[in-house]
Design brief:
356 residues, alpha+beta, Rossmann fold, 8 helices, 24% helix, elongated
């Protein structure tokens, strides 16, 4: 079984780059190969102009020689050691001792907000503090690249959000290159300069957070990131600028979709009468109690339920025999059982072949 299959990535200096995917997609294997903890069967890995791995040239640089720091999902702290002893360990491996080592440890602990805790036993720390110790240990020898393997997954939701902000701020201050692995979409979208989405060891799409979210290249990326509002349709007509799609099971005017918003899958534009799927993010759907004048791409629906969730409202709507859930930050003068209209923002619509 191939864990990573012909993956080709180029990460820019100073970039926060994320490998995103579900369990078993090959993202951690990729990270460990970059860090020297796995030896790939083929291919090459470079750090700048320096070759770290080349199977054909029989090159394999040991992990401690790669100028990379790594934070594991479990933090991998030594429980019998203090904070200072954990953090100073990479310096000892590199022959840095005495006053120089003490200053480097003190500086990095201040950087991660643990100044004054040098003598604290590692097991006596909270989860967030242990995560900071692991981060300090990875940074203490000033690596060129920081490798992060799901470092926030063991934290509770509130602390995870706090550490997410701190991690991004730290990366910006240091200007360090980060290769980050996660299965969490929010982490990937909020932290990354670019994201590589993986599936079964292969790259599905690579791009900035907004690019991969709003312009997915494949159906897998479309459905993996966030929620997608999908409607079955049939092409009614095509002109120079747009594709008109009739939404099945609904008595509504055709939806006008820019031709550039059709995800062809390499098969070209659909023909008239061809079945297609209309996709849009729920946050790009506007809910109306009455059909407003001058608006296009309006779809009739029935409101089945309204739930107040504190900072937003959740609306369950029925479109023919299918149900969809929409979220709005504002209350609406509508109630369950009412007929409503959904405005599909044209800039947010994408069109897909039915078989995707």
């Amino acid at each position: 079984m191939v864990a990573v299959d012909r993956l080709n990535l180029e990460i820019r200096e100073g970039e926060f780059f994320t490998l995103l995917g579900s369990s078993g997609c090959g993202k951690t294997t990729t990270l460990r190969s970059v860090g020297g903890l796995e030896k790939p069967d083929g291919g090459e890995i470079f750090l700048g102009e320096k070759c770290l791995v080349s199977e054909s040239r029989r090159i394999f640089i040991k992990p401690e020689k790669r100028e990379m720091g790594m934070v594991f999902q479990s933090y991998a702290l030594w429980p019998h050691m203090t904070v200072f002893e954990n953090v100073v360990y990479p310096l000892k491996l590199r022959g840095i001792k005495g006053a120089e080592a003490e200053k480097k440890v003190a500086d990095v602990l201040e950087l991660v907000g643990l100044g004054g805790l040098e003598d604290r036993p590692a097991p006596a720390l909270s989860g967030g503090q242990q995560q900071r110790v692991a981060l300090a240990r990875a940074l203490v020898f000033s690596p060129r690249v920081l490798l992060l393997d799901e470092p926030l997954s063991n934290l509770d939701a509130q602390l995870r959000e706090e550490m997410r902000r701190e991690l991004k701020g730290l990366q910006r201050r240091l200007g360090i290159t980060v290769l980050f692995v996660t299965h969490d979409q929010i982490e990937a979208l909020s932290l990354s300069d670019r994201i590589a989405i993986m599936k079964f060891g292969q790259l599905e799409q690579m791009g900035g957070p907004e690019e991969v979210y709003y312009h997915p290249a494949t159906a897998f990326v479309r459905d993996f990131l966030g929620k997608t509002f999908l409607l079955s349709g049939k092409v009614q007509g095509i002109n120079e600028h747009q594709i008109n799609v009739e939404i099945q099971q609904l008595s509504a005017a055709p939806i006008a979709i820019p031709r550039t918003n059709f995800s062809t899958g390499g098969n070209g534009l659909p023909g008239v009468g061809e079945p297609v799927m209309v996709a849009i993010r729920p946050e790009q759907v506007e809910l109306w109690g009455k059909a407003p004048e001058g608006k296009t791409n309006m779809v009739p629906a029935h409101l089945q339920a309204v739930q107040f969730l504190g900072d937003r409202y959740e609306f369950t709507v029925a479109l023919g025999s299918e149900k969809r859930v929409l979220v709005s930050p504002a209350a609406r003068q509508i109630k369950a059982g009412d007929k409503v209209f959904l405005e599909l923002k044209s800039e947010g619509i994408s069109l897909w072949p039915r078989d995707t």
